[in-house]
Design brief:
With about 500 residues, the chain is mainly α. Helix content is about 75%, strand content about 0%.
């Protein structure tokens, strides 16, 4: 009995290898490092929180010590009476950034589908670099300290940084098809973690000279990256005369299955057939779909809500991990920055391996569910980590594997799947819009979470913060449970049909 075409598993890397050119490699690297630089500048802020808090609060001194005059000069940087108030304001800045980032993502996705992705990405990188320089370096050099000014700059920074993710995911979706997408995007989505590592490394190297130099270095590198992107990034294969992927990809495979003989092979002609099909469609430019149309696509709302819970946890580690290590264990700030890298290492490995597994199964949701269940256990274990750097690093990496991995999958491979499904074939410019919806909803959850983390930590302690993380991780599984059930049923049904075929 012949196996239906839909059940014949194609090798995950077949289409990827056959169509890969040096243009694909350049696009992969440019989009990878452009978003890494955006994340590095965000990570710098979280890595220097202790130094900023010290600068914004008066230093403890002996009551008999003479008061320095004039008071306005010596106390101009003291925005808060104590470190607790400074910590709460730093959490507020995180919340402000993420709310503006979330709003910007919804807008940037729509703009990215209508304008040149290279222009939007380059503008966001260069402009954000200038804002980061003004926030951390220029204000310190000029000795200008103002809470409202910091808030306004961070709102603008969130809006500008939001141009990054929808654009890079859309460019990657234009160049890399469905074959091997889980593995390719799983490996590529390590860009955020690599950016975190890069930001932590740069900050720890120059922190001894002052936190303003950490902002200066990351802003300079990010601005240079934006210039490189403007002159070097190709947003679509059609810019160099290559056939586009996406809209005709699934149609070609269905037609191929319908006309292919049960025995024999015509693989040699596959590439020529795809090229001829695409050549006839190049004149028809795809039109972007509307925001509400994108929201109504199957799976978009469920994955968006799930990502809101998961990004809350992932970004809490991103923003607060160095501060937690320094305040809870009393480790030096530079040491805490370097140790926090292990969470990102776990996320890189987790995203790649879990993406590969999802390619083999051709299903995403069950892989996410298993990883997130293990994440609950790893969070409970990390909350009880002893005051030992090696043990803490190991448990931290395991936690990053089971939390960062699923987070990378939802924000990259799954977003690309949702934006390239059959319902948008006639209007295929949906990828940036869908990515903006998923990541924007996730950022709203993360924004609320950062403020809640600071409140819970201040009133109940760090242990209750981890209980909150466990609750949010469990909620992620709950939101995607309909998709998990559906995909497991499909897997069992396909297995049953293959057994009958044998």
């Amino acid at each position: 009995m012949a196996v239906p075409g839909a059940l014949r598993r194609q090798p995950a890397n077949r289409g990827l290898v056959s169509h890969c050119t040096h243009h694909h490699i350049v696009v992969f690297l440019l989009t990878f490092f452009s978003y890494s630089l955006l994340h590095a500048s965000r990570k710098t802020f979280s890595n220097v929180k202790v130094s900023i808090s010290s600068q914004w609060t008066p230093s403890p001194r002996n009551s008999t010590a003479p008061e320095l005059q004039p008071c306005e000069l010596w106390n101009s940087s003291h925005l808060f009476k104590n470190s607790e108030e400074a910590t709460l304001f730093l959490g507020t800045l995180d919340t402000i950034f993420l709310f503006s980032y979330a709003v910007g993502l919804f807008v940037s996705g729509i703009v990215g589908d209508r304008l040149n992705l290279r222009w939007v990405l380059s503008f966001g990188m260069c402009s954000s670099a200038l804002v980061v320089f003004s926030f951390g370096t220029l204000t310190e050099w000029l000795h200008f300290y103002n809470k409202w000014f910091y808030c306004c700059l961070w709102v603008v920074n969130g809006l500008l940084q939001s141009t990054g993710w929808p654009c890079v995911v859309a460019v990657m979706g234009n160049w890399f098809g469905k074959a091997g997408r889980g593995f390719v995007f799983g490996l590529w989505s390590a860009c955020a973690s690599v950016g975190n590592i890069l930001g932590a490394f740069l900050a720890s190297c120059v922190l001894k000279y002052g936190y303003e130099y950490a902002f200066l270095v990351t802003a300079s590198v990010q601005f240079a990256g934006g210039v490189v992107v403007f002159f070097g990034l190709l947003t679509s294969p059609r810019e160099v005369g290559l056939p586009e992927l996406g809209a005709d990809e699934d149609e070609a495979s269905v037609e191929e299955d319908a006309h292919r003989p049960l025995m024999g092979s015509d693989d040699v002609d596959d590439d020529d057939q795809n090229y001829s099909i695409q050549a006839t469609d190049n004149d028809n430019q795809p039109k972007a779909i509307g925001f509400f149309q994108a929201c109504c696509l199957p799976g978009v709302v469920l994955y968006s809500l799930a990502y809101a819970c998961l990004k809350l946890v992932n970004y809490s580690f991103f923003f607060w991990l160095p501060f937690y290590l320094s305040s809870n264990f009393g480790w030096k700030e530079a040491e805490a920055d370097q140790l926090s890298i292990w969470y990102d290492v776990g996320g890189i490995i987790g995203g790649t391996i879990q993406g590969l597994i999802s390619d083999v199964l051709q299903k995403r949701a069950p892989v996410l569910a298993v990883s997130l269940l293990f994440a609950v256990g790893s969070l409970f274990g990390y909350s009880r980590s002893p005051n030992s750097k090696p043990i803490n690093a190991v448990i931290m990496a395991i936690t990053g594997f089971f939390i960062g991995g699923p987070s990378n999958m939802i924000s990259s491979a799954i977003s690309a799947d949702l934006g390239r499904q059959d319902l948008v074939k006639g209007s295929s410019e949906a990828l940036a819009t869908v990515t903006g919806i998923v990541d924007g909803t996730g950022s709203i959850g993360a924004a609320v979470g950062q403020y809640l983390v600071s409140l819970i930590q201040e009133n109940l302690g760090w242990m209750w913060v981890f209980y909150f993380f466990i609750l949010m991780t469990s909620s992620t599984v709950l939101f995607i449970s309909p998709l998990i059930v559906r995909e497991i049923r499909l897997l069992l049904h396909e297995r049953h049909l293959r057994m009958l075929a044998e």
